[in-house]
Every structure is written in C-alpha cells, then in structure tokens.
Amino acid sequence: MKRLGVLALAVLSVAGAAGGASAQAPIESELALITPVSKFIHDAALKAFADYAKERWGVAVKVSAIPAGTPVAYGRVVEWKGRPEVDIFWGGESALFEKLAEQRLLAKLELAAELWDSIPASLGKPRPIPLKDKDGFWVGTALEPYGLVYHPKKLQRLGVPELREWDDLLHPKLRGEVAQCAPTRSSSSNATYEVILSMLGEEKGWDWLKKLAQNTGHFTARSRDVPTVVAKGEYAAGFAVPSYMAFEEKLAGFDLKFVAPRNAFVTPEPMAILAGARNPRAARAFIEFLLTERGQKVFMERGLFPITPKYKVQGAPGSTAEMAVEFTGGVRSYFAGDVSNVYDEAAAQKRSDGLKTKFRSEIEAVWKKP
Amino acid sequence: MTDTGAVRRPARARRRSLPPVLGVAAIWLFLLLFLVYPLLRIFYDAFSDEAGRLTLANFVEFARDPFYVRSLVNSLVLGLGTVAATSIVGFAVAFLLVRCDFIGRNLFSYLTLIPIISPPLVGVLGFTFIMGRAGTVNVLLDDWFGLAKPINFVYGIHGVLLVETLHLFPMITLNVVDALAKIDPALEEAAESVGARGLTKWRTITLPLTTPGYVAGALLVFIWTFSDFATPLVLGVHDLLAAQAYLNIVQFVDRRIFRMGIVISALMVALAIVFLVAARRYVAIKDYSSLSYGRLARVRLSPLRQSAAVAFLTLVMLLSFIPYLGVVLASVGKGWSLTPVPVRYTLQYFERVIVETPKYIVNSLLYAGLAVVLCIVVGVPIAWILARTRLAGRDALDGLNTLTLAVPGTAIGIAYVRAFHFDLPWLQYGLTSFWVVLPLVLAIRRLPYTVRGSYASLLLVHRSMEDAAASVGATGGRAFRDITLPLIWRGVLVGSLFSFMTSLQEASAVLFLSLGGWETITVGIFSFYIAGSANEAAALGVILIVVATLSLVLINRIAGARMGGMFG
Predict the structure, then answer these.
(1) Are strands A139-140 and A144-150 parallel, antiparallel or unpaired?
(2) pLDDT: is B434 or B325 the higher one?
(3) Which residues contact B504 (CB under 8 A, 6 or more apart)?
(4) Is B559 inside a domain boundary?
(5) Quick check: A284 pLDDT over 90?
(6) Contact in structure between B510 and B520 (CB atoms under 8 Å)
(7) Averaging pLDDT over each range in A11-15, A129-133, B317-321, B472-476, which range is the top one?
C-alpha cells in the first residue's frame, strides 16, 4: 500500500512537471483545445498546424483536443474558473464567447493586423452576423451553414421530390422519416429552431415545429447523429445539420445531399484563447495559421467556406474542394452574393430558456413515434 | 456448512501486531476516500441548491415533472422486463448445458459466454446495422417482397429490451450454471430415495439451491439495464432515468437541468441500493451448497429432443451474434447504405485506430492493468479479512464491496467529477486533472470481482490445512506462502482477469473523467461515434471484442466451471 502511494505521488509529480517545461522556444510544444467542431475538422486543422510549426520553427507541437458539444464545452470552460485544462475554445455561437469574455475567462487575441483586418466585421441582411469580436476576444475561422440533409435514393423510393426549402420537410410522405436533435441538446438545432421562430413568428413558428415533430421518426442524442442516420438510410431527411458534417458522410462514401434553405443559420465558428492558458503563444500561432490561405484550405476542402473574401472554394476538377462545391449546391463563397439572415443573437439569447422549456413540454413530452 | 470441522483458534485473532492494523486502516481509507466520499458528495448535491443550502426541492421538482416520472416508471418496467426475459432464456440455456447431454454441448457452453463481451455502444450500433430501418433484414424484405415500409425492430423501448436481453442473458446462465453445478448429486439422490421425483424434486431441492445464484445474476441484469444510457440513446429512447441523467449532465449550460442530472444519478444509486438489500436477503442463504463441484450425471437426450435443444440454442446464439456481425461488417464496409451487406470494403478504419492513433489501445491496457494491480493490492486482503477474520466492520466491508457492483457507472463517474475537482495540496490541480483518476475509478468499479474470486478460493482452502501447517511450526506469513497462496492463486488470477476484461469494457464511468490524450478504447468508440465516424468506432469495437475474447478464453482455461461465481 505504502509503496503504491509513493508510486502514485511520483506519477503525479511527473505528470505535473511535464506541463511547465520549455520557456524560451518561439511557441510552446503543446496545444490543446476543447471544441464542438467535429474530429473530421479539428483533427485536420491540428495536424496541418503541427506540420506548419515543424517547418516554420522546428518545434514538434503535441496537439490534442477534447471533443464536446457546445454546451458541454462552454460548461467546462466555466467550471475551470480561469485555470483551464486546454488553451483554446473553438466553435458554437458567438454569444457564448461574449459571455465568457464578460466572465474574464478569455484572453485578448492580439492577432497580426493584416489577418485581423482581412475578416469583415459582419455578414448578412437584415440581421448582420458578427464575424469577429469588436473587443478582440474571439475571431471567426470559417463559415458554416446549418441546413438539411437527405438521402436521394430513399426519397425516390418514398416518392418525395428532392428537398429545397424548409417546408419540404413537412411533406406527408415524410411522416416518420425525418431525424433531428432536440434543441435542448444541440446548439445547431437550437439555432435553427430560432431561425424558424424569427421567420414565422412565435405562434406560427411553433405550429410549424410541431408539424415537423409529427414527421420526425427519431430524436437523436447528438446533433452529429442526424447526418449519420440519414447517410445510412435509416431516415430519409435530417434537420439543422452543419454543412461539413454532411460532407464528411459524403467523403466517407455515402450518397447524401445537403441544402441550405433561405435564412439558414450561418456560424463563423468562433475561436478564442482561454485566460490562463498554459500555451498562449502556440494558441495564437494556431489561430493565425488558420486565417492564412494554407489554414483556410483545411476548411475549404471539408465542406466549409472561407471567413474572408480573399479566398474562394476552388480546386482542380475532381478535387475534394470541387466536390464540396457541388455538394453544397454550387456555393464558393458567402461573400459573393447577398446572404439573408433573420437570426438575431440578442433575441435568441432572450428566448433561449423559454424555447427549451416549451420544447420540453410541448414537443418532447407529447411526441410519439409515428 | 462451510465451517464444519474448522477448529476455532481465538489465539490467532488476538495476535495482532501493528502492520496488519495499518493494512486494514489503509484499505478502509481507500474505500472511504474513493467510494464512500464521492457517493456522499452526489447525495449532498442532490439534497442542496445552487447556494449549498440543504433542500428537498430537487426531488419535489422531479416528482412534479411528468416526463421524469415517466422515465422512472419506464426504467423500472424495462429493468424488470429484461430480468424476466433474460431469466427465461438464461435458465433454459443453463439447464440444457448442465443437465443434458447433446451434440455440440461443449461448443455451446463456450459460445454462451460471448454475448456478454459485446462492447458498449457499438454492440447496439451493430444491431441497428442488421435490424434497423435500413438494416440488412429490412433491405432484404424490401428486395424480396417489396416491403416499402420498413419494420421497426429496434427503435423504441421494445428494441432496448431485445438488445439488453440478448446481451445479458449469459449473466443469468453463468450464475445458474454455477449454482446447478454446485448441487451435490447426493442431495438429489437423497430426495429421490424418499420418493421426490420430477417436479417435486425440482421444487424442493433444485430451485431453492439455485435461487441465490439466480438472484445475484438477476440483480446484475437489472442494474445493468437500469443504468445503461448508450443503448437507449442509439435507439432514440430518451424517457429513461439513465438517459436523462446522461443527457442532463452532458449539457452544462443550464445549471438547473445539470443539477437534475445529479439528482437522477443519486436516485439511481438509492434505488440500486434498495434492490441490492432486497436481493441480499436471498443471497444470504447461499451456504446450503457444498463447496466441491460434484460430478454430474447428465441426461442423454433422445435424438428428437437433441435436435430441439440444438435448434433452440442455435437460434439464441444467432440472435445474440447479430451485433457482432453488424460491428464486423461496419468496421470494414465503406458507405454501407440500403444494401444487405456493404458493397465496398476497406481496412482504412483499422489503420486509423491502430497505426495512426494507437493511444486508445495503449491507454486501455495501461489503465486496466493498473486497475487490476490496485484490485489485487486492495481486494485480496479484503477477501482474506472476510474469509478468515472476525474483525469488527467485516459486514460493512462486505456490504461496501457488494454495493460497488450495484452503483451505476454513470453515477460513479459523475460522483468523481463532483468530488475530486478541487486543488490538491501542493499541486495546482485537482485529482481529476491527472490520468491516475481513471485507473482509480476502474479499480473501485471492478474490485468486487477480485474480492469474490479470492474469497471463493479462500473458502475452498480448508482452514484445517493452515492449522496443520501451524501445528508443525509454520506460522503467519509462512503458512500463507506455503499453503494458502499456492491454493488460491487461481481464484485471484481469475478474479483479476475478470476485473481486467471488464475494465477494458468500462465506458460510463470513464466517459465523464477522460481528458484529451487519455482516451481508452471505449472512450474512443464514443468520441468516434459522436464525431460521426461509426466505422472507426466499429473497428475499435472489433479490437475490444478480440482482446476480451482472449481474456475470456484464458479465464475459462483457468477457472473452468467456476466462472459464474464471479458475478454473484
């Protein structure tokens, strides 16, 4: 017993010491992040950065990520109370980042001016979507619409035309064929519920959402499960799916399609450095890297769109970039045309609790599998 | 009956020196710190508000919320339903294996063990790949009979019942096999000699003697089903307690819902304790059984009955192998959708989880290995205290050990997060910031297996042997080394291997505690699944199945029929 205790202490102290080494290198040799952005994207981004750091500074950065849904990620950052286990928080709604900044849990980014200035302050009408924080605590990294996915072969079997607009989900033949995640558990679902309510108004909006629930055959436990069950063909259509999650299934060899209907929510996938981060220089270098052309390419080849008008999704014929363009309906950049947006951050925050309570009592509690 | 012939030696009990006292104290400290304290912590959380004031409001809120009440009722119904279903299947299989002789009996007794190692999450995923709306069966029905509307085999509470039954019936089988095998044939012969045959014999001898083993198995089935959140969530069933606890806790933003998750976890622990206490009233009568495994006379079945037995067992095995088939196909199939089997095959998923990121496998083996070391260091002495001493607090020790079996993994994971997230003295971080917390929680979870295995072996070593050694002057440590150890190592090893295998399988407790870089195979399965890569999750699942199967084969080699005792 005693020997074991000594051993445990030794292990603990070794683990503790490993954290605080190497003070003089240009960047620290570790970088950790917490993110709802899926492995498909964050793994690629971290790996690209590790390669870049090796070339640029000769530093082998040990990168790691804690994958967590937006609410969990946010919750853990708050629980860490300024002594975080990771350096970076990435993804989710920008309002959460502002809440964190208010609690003094974020560090100022202080990025190179040329990169910071290459990102427009906002996007969309009538409600502008902020793409970076005016106080400099967070910055957008890539643009990502939350739309619909569908299984073309399955729709064909059901005799339902391909989906284009929100209302197409209410087709009577899609009864029991729609998958969605509860807005109480998924921020992409929550944001899309909010879009519907802003678009149709409170009363008509809830009627619409209840009709959608009648067509829903499966409330998944996580938003990421929605494109999975549609790709497999378990369900014909999915609601409120981020474009890259659908594209990941496409790349995995599944036959499915994505469409972003009018007013679909677009997120800039904000990124911030946590106050008290153990590797602040590596964190800053990572963000700056993601905003360069090389960094943006990581996103553009995976079903996301550039955060700056400087770049467009483009590649050789047959490349994954071109495949992504085709998959998302020909869009190459969100800065090329007008973007329609009705989602209002302040209104959404105000409605957030009420929306969840109402969903629990009026949809989840009464929903029966069709 | 176990104590017949044992000469009580009060002198031995009195001869206590300092080291044993310290050892006992250390064991108690370990259990208090890593089991009792975390559990008390979630009860405190459940009975207090955000400001830390004691209150019953959380439970009032639970009782007033029709959705939670429905979840509670559903969980109880599902648990009891699964116990009923596994009992029917498990008892039938056990009876055939122990009491009858037919072609392939040995093979079937091996195969019966396999369903139990179905890895968390991917087992049910595998099931949906075959039985889902777009699974192999429905696709074939559509292709052959034009059945456009798929049959819903799995999505819903009936699906959970089906998956849990096929997964857990071996727990009943193993316990009943163990109990049936322990019945001294002399007892049954005695019964027959006084005219008790057939049903009467069954009712008066066989059933009472198998009840303790059966109850122990039934309790484990109940608790397992009751606390499993992965299966229902994959099948779209959210109105169950475990699912609500998980979902409420993994969202941190709404503190009220978060607290309700803790309240539900506490409620689950409380209910588990109630069922445990109820079950122990039966398990207490365990000592009717003789300690030797009697040689059994098996009934040779007639050809017709033989084929019926083989057909029944084959059907059960085929059904319980569905998840494995699904997992294996998904681990090598690419873009598998709406075809009976995948059209394109690849090894890229295995490459990704073995070559590119071997950490899952390395971490799993490391943590499970360390957990087993802890289990032995703490568990063997506990078993010795239980079997050989009359120390005060023995019953409490036994109770705590059994309690561990009943505490839902989700609850203990959450309890650790709540209990150990404060800064340790001299260190800037809490225990939850160090990976040792994972082997620790695994050790606590699996301690009962080591204790049971060692305890059972210690009971088999007759006290008179140690006394004989003592009479020729080999006292204390010498007698333990020369007599006891050679006789019990097998039991310790079996218990430890079982602890190891089940530690590898553990998901619910480690899921809440794992940080970046610490991922085990099961955490990897979850994070790949959550990230939408069911194929990589399946590949990890296959690896887990292989490792667990190897452990099982090893256990079976060493332990033979004694397997079942592990679960009781």
Answers:
(1) unpaired
(2) B325
(3) B364, B365, B368, B520, B521, B522, B544, B547, B548, B551
(4) no
(5) yes
(6) yes
(7) A129-133
Q: What is the pLDDT of residue A22?
A: 42
ipTM of the complex: 0.73
Partner A, chain B 302-341, Cβ-Cβ below 8 Å: 334-338
Residue A5, exposed/middle/buried by CB under 10 A (0-12, 13-18, 19+)?
Answer: exposed
List the domain boundaries for chain A: 27-143+268-321, 144-266+339-364
Cβ <8 Å between A15 and B252: no
**Which residue(s) pair with A126 in the sheet?**
A341
Closest alpha carbon to B116 in B354, B343, B324: B324
Task: Point out the domain boundary residue: B334, B358, B374.
Answer: B334
Tens-place pLDDT, residues A103-117 = 999 999 999 999 999
Q: Does the distance separating the beta carbons of A369 and B156 come in below 8 Å?
A: yes
Range of the domain at B454: 1-50+366-518
Contacts for A139 with CB less than 8 Å, ≥ 6 apart: A109, A111, A116, A119, A131, A132, A133, A270, A271, A272, A287, A291
Residue of B133, B136, B244, B535 to mutate when probing chain A, most A C-beta within 10 A: B133
Distance CA B373, CA B381 (A): 13
Q: Which residue has the higher pLDDT, A53 or A71?
A: A53
Same fold, A27-143+268-321 and A144-266+339-364: yes
Look at residue B297 in the predicted model and tell me its pLDDT: 64
Mean pLDDT along residues A197-209: 96
Q: Is residue B70 within 8 Å of B239, Cβ to Cβ? A: yes
Report the residue of B124, B423, B530, B533 to disrupt the A interface, i.e. the one with the largest count of A CBs within 10 Å: B530
Q: Which of B148, B434, B535 sits opposite A15 (nearest CB)?
A: B434
Residues B105 and B228 in one domain: yes
Superfamily (CATH) of domain A27-143+268-321: Periplasmic binding protein-like II (3.40.190.10)
Residues B46 and B87 in one domain: no
Indicate if B84 and B199 belong to the same structural domain.
Answer: yes
Which class is A144-266+339-364 in CATH? alpha beta
